[in-house]
Automatic annotation (TrEMBL):
Belongs to the NIP7 family. Residues 95-170 form the PUA domain. GO terms for biological process: ribosome assembly. This is 60S ribosome subunit biogenesis protein NIP7 homolog. Required for proper 34S pre-rRNA processing and 60S ribosome subunit assembly. The gene is NIP7. PROSITE patterns: PUA (PS50890). GO terms for molecular function: RNA binding. It is found in: Nucleus, Nucleolus. GO terms for cellular component: nucleolus. Interacts with pre-ribosome complex. PANTHER family: CYCLIN-DEPENDENT KINASES REGULATORY SUBUNIT/60S RIBOSOME SUBUNIT BIOGENESIS PROTEIN NIP7.
Length: 180
């Protein structure tokens, strides 16, 4: 368990900023205490400093995980967000997409969101912008990347992809043996 290097921090914050924008500061300086990011086995954990001090007594090889896993660094040093970060990204999300009940199951199985399944989209969403996907009942389902801007979504074919799938809460079931 070690702090992130400057390069790792930059790469991770750029990825998170795609979803939360300038609200990134609210993740670190929270009213219930100070939180930080730590790297352990190529995975980035979001943990309170209080728990971090308690974990200092445990050796690194015996420690499985600590806090909430936000994502992991790939072999090529790119950062990939995990679905476990959704609960922390959703309240601060700058751009949101709501999908119709009929499209929820398709999204939760790992498929992209089509125009026919799109319920609402935040105004001024740019193409390739990170978005958090919600059900029509405002339950966060996952996150992805906008394939089309808000203006393009209005005049596109109903079978066109409007959100590229990145992660969804169905991964808890589909990949439960690899999530830590």
């Amino acid at each position: 368990m070690r702090p992130l290097t400057e390069e790792e921090t930059r790469v991770m914050f750029e990825k998170i900023a795609k979803y939360v924008g300038e609200n990134l500061q609210l993740l670190v300086d929270r009213p219930d205490g100070t939180y930080c990011f730590r790297l352990h086995n190529d995975r980035v954990y979001y943990v309170s400093e209080k728990i971090l001090k308690l974990a200092a007594n445990i050796s690194g090889d015996k420690l499985v995980s600590l806090g909430t896993c936000f994502g992991k660094f790939t072999k090529t040093h790119k950062f990939r967000l995990h679905i476990t970060a959704l609960d922390y990204l959703a309240p601060y999300a700058k751009y949101k997409v709501w999908i119709k009940p009929g499209a929820e199951q398709s999204f939760l199985y790992g498929n992209h969101v089509l125009k026919s399944g799109l319920g609402r989209i935040t105004e001024n969403t740019c193409q390739y912008q990170g978005v958090v996907v919600y059900s029509m009942a405002d339950v966060p389902l996952g996150f992805g990347v906008a394939a089309k801007s808000t203006q393009d979504c209005r005049k596109v074919d109903p079978m066109a992809i409007v959100v590229f799938h990145q992660a969804d809460i169905g991964e808890y079931v589909r990949h439960e043996e690899t999530l830590t």
